[in-house]
Amino acid sequence: MEKRYSEYSYEELRNEVAQLTEKARKAEQMGIINEYAVYERKIIMAKAYMMDPGEFERNTVYQIEGDPAHTFHIDYMNGVFAWGYRINLTGSKTSDKEEALPISMLGKKVSY
Hints:
- The protein is 33% helix and 28% strand.
- The protein contains two helices and five strands, in the order H-H-E-E-E-E-E.
- A five-stranded antiparallel beta sheet has the order 4-3-2-1-5.
- Strand 1 and strand 2 form a beta hairpin.
- The model has no long low-confidence stretch (mean pLDDT 95).
C-alpha cells in the first residue's frame, strides 16, 4: 500500500516531485495528454505538502499560479488546502460555491 503525501518526509517529497516531473515530461513528449495532466496534478499535491500552511492567511487574496485572470480569496485553511473563492479581474466572485486549492497553486499575496 502506498504512503500518503502527508506521511512523506521532505526529502521523500522532493524525490517524488523529481520522479513525477520526469514521468510528466515523457508523457508530454509521447503526446499522452491525459497522463501528463495526472502527473501535473500529483506534482501540485506533493509540492503542497512541502510548503508551510502557516504562511497563508485567512481573509487574504493571493495570485493563482497559471491563472492570471483570477485571484483567490482565502476564507479558511484546512491542512494544505486553502478554502475560498476565485475573484476575476473586475473584482467579482466567479461563483458562489466555495472551492479548495492546494497551497502550492497560490502565488504572491495581492494587496489592493
